[in-house]
Design a protein that fits this description.
The complex is a heterodimer. Chain A is mostly helical. Chain A has helices at about 5-40, 60-70, 80-100, 125-135, 135-145, 150-180, 185-195, 205-210, 210-225, 235-240, 250-275, 285-290, 290-320, 330-355, 360-390, 400-430; strands at about 105-110, 115-120, 195-200, 200-205. In chain A, the strands form 2 sheets. In chain A, strands 1-2 form a two-stranded antiparallel ribbon. Chain A has a two-stranded antiparallel ribbon with strand order 3-4. Chain A is globular and about 65 Å long. The two termini of chain A are about 40 Å apart. Among the domains of chain B are: about 1-80, NADH-ubiquinone/plastoquinone oxidoreductase chain 6, subunit NuoJ (Four Helix Bundle (Hemerythrin (Met), subunit A)), CATH 1.20.120; about 135-185, no CATH class. The chains are: A mainly alpha, B mainly alpha. Chains A and B meet through helix 4, helix 5, helix 6, helix 10 and helix 16 of A and helix 2, helix 3 and helix 7 of B.
Chain lengths: ~425, ~200
């Protein structure tokens, strides 16, 4: 029976993880719409505003989306299987959120004498848990497609089941090769191992040790998350909207959110397995703690400079826009310029007054933890952007192309990668 | 605490198993079977057999049942009615129920001695692999051979008769390509925002 503080810490970590995913969600939706717009040489969403002043480059739109989805009429078509029809979106969201439990987002947090590992559940099956839980995603799509009593939705579910099973094998084989390299299935062990340096200067990240495995994993991940170029289960041009065709209002919103949750979790898994997770390149946890003073000073100076830069840029935009729009929207950049100036003053003031270069050992440990969590979140956001980037760059695969790629090209390559890795590990470590 | 979880998941497993055999629709049956597998996986986890629990989800719930569903949905609704009024089926069911009851009561009755405590790593992936690759190596290799034979058989059966065949490796591919080709043929319509690849 764990004591109550441990339970509270576990709840805190779960809350933090949920906050990261659900907080990133609206940003991802904004990034998708805005990124698509810029890739297509449009302006993208920029109309919704708060008080007619703040538009924040379209960031208000996700908020408006939420209101729209909540207040839309909820329609349950005739002839659906009521139980499974309502269960499907719940499965999608639950599966998407529970994958996060085993992903480490930092090294241990030091609080006095306590050491708190920064991951929700340190299971001894590690990465297999992610594979197992994410393999259940398919039931959300299949259930939705089957219970909707619609042939297009049904075809979408059918496609999803065939696609998922085909690419899961490749994903599993890529991960197996990685397990051979690191000799552990625990994600935290893998991340710790990625803190080493190869020949003294290259970080021993998974992508360096397993480049083929990385490509296979990434492609399989796109197929598993049903993102373009593998979004055949919901191919609009063929199946109207695929498996979630008959869903409206908040139930559609759940599918929509689950897609982005899967993306964020997938990005977190890729960065954990192949890009060092919470490891700051060239800096171990000890290194971070020892050099915390210098690093804090440098990052504060850079932060001050960047804030000043933003403030001047926005102020010049404010000057230029004055009198062109003719309403309160003109005020936005001016107010934001003042906000950034305030931030610059705060960081600069701390730099001068707070003596950040000689912080104590406890504060250095916390600084190291914050840096690592920041590193993890940055990598995750970067890979989430890769998902969006690929979606608006590549056309959708045809179904037979999808199957041929999975079974005839990727599977033999994955097997070869696995055998070569096994032989290499045997001869170097054996 | 563990007892509570045991009864919750045990009840879920029994209920979903009952629903599996009583549902008329084969797809619903398959879904209840998945619930049953998941509950059993939870029971494995309670017995500190974490690796078994994960394999149960990964292989049975995640892979095998997806194939089941795929086949059921692909064959359509006409063939999914099972005749249950046959007296031989009922008799077989009653007989196996009696047999299972006898065996289980004997098993439960024979374990009065307290179990020895197990190590923390018990049931983890390292412990299971260690036993598999030392004590049960021969059986493990034999199973591998059996699976290889099954894979070769599957590839042989799914092979196309025509010479110069392509895509014959995956049994899934054959069934879907013709149907997918017809549905993609009419896909010249441009998705509402997908302008760049039109």
């Amino acid at each position: 029976m764990p004591d109550i503080t441990e339970l509270l810490w576990a709840l805190g970590k779960i809350g933090f993880m949920l906050a990261v995913i659900l907080g990133t969600l609206p940003v991802m939706i904004w990034a998708e719409r805005k990124g698509a717009a810029y890739i297509q040489d449009r302006s993208g969403p920029n109309r919704a505003s708060i008080g007619g002043v703040f538009r924040l480059g379209g960031l208000i739109h996700p908020l408006a989306d939420v209101f729209k989805l909540v207040f839309k009429e909820e329609i349950v078509p005739a002839g659906v299987n009521v139980f499974f029809y309502h269960l499907a979106p719940i499965i999608m969201m639950t599966v998407a959120l529970s994958t996060f439990a085993v992903i480490p987002f930092g090294d241990v947090l030091l609080l006095g004498t306590r050491e708190i590992p920064l991951l929700v559940a340190n299971l001894n099956v590690g990465i297999l848990y992610i594979l197992a839980i994410s393999s259940l995603t398919v039931y959300g799509t299949v259930l939705a497609g089957w219970s909707s009593n619609n042939k297009f939705a049904f075809l979408g579910g059918l496609r999803a089941s065939a696609q998922m099973i085909s690419y899961e094998i490749n994903m599993g084989l890529a991960v197996l090769a990685l397990i051979l390299v690191y000799g552990s299935v625990r994600l935290n062990d893998m991340v710790v191992a990625q803190g080493d340096l190869l020949w003294g200067f290259i970080p021993a990240w998974g992508v360096v040790l397993q480049p083929v495995g990385f490509v296979l994993f990434l492609v399989a991940l796109f197929a598993e998350t049903n993102r373009n170029p593998f979004d055949l289960p919901e191919g609009e041009s063929e199946l109207v909207a695929g498996y979630h065709l008959e869903y409206s209002s908040l139930k559609f919103a759940l599918f929509f959110m689950a897609e982005y949750c899967n993306m964020i979790v997938g990005a977190a898994v890729v960065s954990t397995l192949y890009f060092g997770g919470w490891q700051v390149p060239w800096l171990t946890t000890e290194g971070l703690r020892e050099n915390a003073g210098t690093l804090l000073t440098v990052s504060l100076s850079v932060g001050t400079l960047l804030n000043l830069l933003f403030a001047t840029g926005l102020w010049r935009k404010f000057q230029g826009e004055r009198g062109t729009l003719g309403d309160r929207r003109e005020l936005e950049s001016g107010i934001l310029a003042v906000v950034f100036l305030g931030l610059a003053l705060a960081t600069g003031g701390y730099l001068l007054v707070g003596k950040p270069w000689d912080i104590g050992p406890a504060a250095s440990a916390h600084f190291a933890t914050v840096m690592q969590i920041g590193q993890f979140i940055t990598k995750t956001l970067l890979f989430s952007w890769v998902f969006i980037w690929v979606r608006w760059t590549l056309p959708r695969f045809r179904y037979d192309q999808l199957m041929r790629l999975g079974w005839q090209y990727m599977l033999p390559l994955a097997l070869l990668n696995f055998v070569v890795t096994a032989a290499f590990v045997l001869f170097t470590h054996g | 605490m563990e007892a509570v979880f045991f009864y919750v998941f045990g009840t879920l497993a029994v209920i979903s198993a009952l629903l599996t055999v009583t549902r008329r629709d084969a797809v619903a049956s398959a879904f209840w079977l998945i619930f049953c597998f998941l509950s059993v996986a939870a029971l494995f986890a309670l017995l500190s057999a974490h690796f078994m629990a994960i394999l149960q989800i990964l292989l049975y719930a995640g892979a095998i049942m997806v194939f089941f569903l795929f086949v059921i949905m692909f064959l359509g609704k006409s063939q999914d009615r099972v005749k249950t009024s046959d007296w031989r089926v009922v008799a077989l069911g009653v007989l196996s129920l009696i047999g299972a009851t006898v065996v289980l009561t004997r098993l439960v009755g024979s374990t009065h001695a307290p179990f020895p405590a197990v190590a923390d790593s018990y049931g983890g992936i390292e412990a299971v692999s260690e036993v598999l690759l030392t004590k049960y190596l021969f059986a493990f290799e034999l199973t591998g051979l059996l699976l290889t034979a099954a894979v070769i058989g599957a590839v042989y059966l799914a092979r196309r008769e025509a010479p110069g065949s392509r895509g014959a490796k995956a049994p899934v591919v054959r069934g879907l390509t013709s149907q997918a080709a017809t549905s993609t043929a009419s896909s010249s319509a441009v998705q509402h925002e997908d302008v760049p690849h039109a």
